[in-house]
Amino acid sequence: MAHGNKNEKVVYVGDSRVRKPGGATIPPDYTSFPGRSEAFIPNFLLKEWMVGCVVLVGFLVLTIAHPAPLGYPANPTNSAFIPIPDWYFLFLYQLLKYPWVSGSYVAWGVVGIPGVAFGSLLLAPFLDTGKERRFYRRPIATALMLLSLVSCYYLTKVSWDFYQHELEITGTIPEHTVREEKAREAAAAGKEPPSATKPAEAVELVDADNAEVKSIMEKAGCLTCHATDLKGQAGANIPALRGVGDLLTKEELAEIITNGKDKMPAFGTDLSAEEIGTLADWLAKQKATE
Amino acid sequence: MFKSVYNWIDERLDVTPLWRDVADHEVPEHVNPAHHFSAFVYCFGGLTFFITVIQILSGMFLTMYYVPDIINAYASVDYLQHKVPFGSIVRGMHHWGASLVIVMMFLHTLRVFFTGSYKAPREMNWVVGMLIFFIMLGLGFTGYLLPWDNKAYFATKVGIQIANSVPYIGEYIKIFLQGGEIVGATTLTRFFAIHVFFLPGALLALLAAHFLMIRKQGIAGPL
Ligand code: HEM
Q1: Hey, what's the torsion of the CAs at A117, A123, A124, A127, to 10 degrees?
Q2: Which of A103, B8, B21, B157 is most deeply buried (CB count within 10 A of its CB)?
Q3: What region holds the Cytochrome b/b6 C-terminal region profile domain (chain A) (predicted)?
């Protein structure tokens, strides 16, 4: 075997080959870039870690000041919920709302425009092959990028403003805000925050098959707001009617139905006193504790 | 003691060149903010990596409590957020970090674009970078569903509807993502697996390629 060779650059540890120590580690050569280069370790890394610590502390302060949002458990039958993706998808979400890239032209919206945009970004080095690196000497590439940036910003802003507007006209408060509010109110009153996983709405209905009540409710349209299962809509701040007998008396219930309350409409003219009495009777019976 | 252990290992595995290569590589003047403040734009790649590490670590802690099924997912997140000590901080880091990493990556991409650093010989690194970009968006999309609250559920439903409108293959993308006819139990387990195993695995492989290429080629020179 050729092991005796003096020029061999390896030593043998057992039957494994390891490079010979000494001379093998290349001394750093800082001549390729003129100026004040420095070694990565320890000089540069130390400064980097100091910056990293500052960033980390700022980040921790942010997470404590703004806890991650959490709404109410997913309920696929909730038809009033306004969907909204994370902010960095809004530009795409908004793009697909325009008539010339949706409906029968949707292929343009989901494949055409994003495909060209992201495709040319992916292949940028092969499309922009000139030697020039300075952006102000590459007018086409720079202009296209700036145009895309402005469009993305514009689409995102339109999408977000529209979402805010939608919340406003439907009187919706985002669920995670509702939850936080309720938790804060409970804390201020010295109570446990209401649990979202065992909602009060899960209370059983009493006398659920009362046909008379059903027909009055259908006629008056209570169910469109308070939900067909009478569990309410937490997102729109409409209370459940299950268990309402624990909260309100028969007289109070009749009063609310007759004269309304905040966003709850008055039914004093639409329903007869007798019908309201029937409803109030039935609702007063809706108690969890029985 | 430490030195002799090190020497013992080095004698067998010759590890010195591995780390000396990383340690001694030069940081040229034009990318060092200590010399030119405007060079801070070169920090965004490192900051993206920093936040990525935070995402991986906080994500690992989240999976200690998170349960990927439709009955318990929400309850486990709720428990983590409100009952586990420091749970809201860990979840907060992962939640806000997900946005921050996109911001940092975006700024990094713009830096590379406007300094023309993607040009020869760094084409491959740019392509790898863009693949990382797509993976990050995928992580954002799949992670959004996991808390299983209404916002998560309906955003995913819309997202899948959009995927469904892709001509010819839309139907298949939808079935692949949903794992069935509706957004339901299989969708959640699927998104969980994609978010926690498939995409991070691909991300780590691509990051390794990204960094190897930077070390091989060095950072692009001054303009
Ligand atoms: C997780 C995401 C990413 C991480 C952690 C990351 C990290 C880094 C780091 C640390 C550098 C060294 C220079 C610097 O810090 O600016 C770098 C350079 C580079 N990155 Fe990224 N990067 C990411 C995503 C991307 C993306 C999305 C692109 C663009 C498509 C990209 C393209 C490049 C290129 C071409 C270089 C070489 C630039 C030069 O030599 O000046 N990277 N990356």
Answers
A1: -100
A2: B157
A3: 30-158
CATH of the domain at A247: 1.10.760.10
A8 in a structural domain? no
Q: What are the pLDDT tens digits along chain A (290 aa)?
A: 455 566 667 777 777 777 776 655 565 666 767 678 887 877 888 888 898 999 999 999 999 999 999 998 888 877 788 999 999 999 999 999 999 988 888 889 999 999 999 999 999 999 999 889 999 999 999 999 999 999 999 999 999 999 999 999 988 889 888 888 888 888 888 777 776 665 544 677 888 888 888 889 888 888 888 888 888 876 677 888 888 887 788 888 999 999 888 788 889 888 888 999 999 999 988 876 54
Which residue on chain B is closest to A149 by alpha carbon? B110
DSSP H or E segment with residue A19: strand A16-19
Is residue A133 a contact partner of residue B223, using CB atoms and an 8 Å limit? yes
With respect to residue B127, please indicate whether it lies within any of the assigned structural domains: yes
- Tell me if A63 and B89 make a contact (CB, 8 A cut-off): yes
Paired tokens of B142? 């799949």
- On whether both A106 and A138 belong to a single domain, the answer is yes
The answer on A176 and A98 residing in a single domain is yes
Q: Is A101 found in the same domain as A63?
A: no
CB nearest B155 (choices: A19, A72, A84): A84
CB–CB contact A145 B148 (8 Å): no
Q: To which residue do tokens 């809201």 refer? A: B88
Closest among A56, A146, A44, A47 to B100, alpha carbons compared: A56
Give the domain extent around A113: 74-198
Number of domains in chain A: 3
Ramachandran sector of residue A77 (left: φ over 0; alpha: ψ -120 to 50; beta: rest):
alpha
Is the CB of residue B220 below 6 angstroms from any atom belonging to ligand 1?
A: yes
Q: Do B32 and A38 touch (CB under 8 A)?
A: yes
- A191 and A232 together in one domain: no
CA A156/CA A1 separation, integer angstroms: 70
B148 occurs within a structural domain: yes
Nearest CA to ligand 1 atom 18: B45
Instruction: Answer yes or no: do A81 and A170 share one domain.
Output: yes
Task: Report chain B residues whose CB lies below 8 A from the CB of A51.
Answer: 43
pTM for this one? 0.76
Domain count, chain B: 1
Could you tell me the distance, in angstroms and rounded to a whole number, from the CA of residue B45 to the centre of ligand 1?
A: 5
User: B105 to chain A, minimum CA–CA distance in Å?
Assistant: 12
Q: Which of A70, A123, A235 sits opposite B77 (nearest CB)?
A: A70
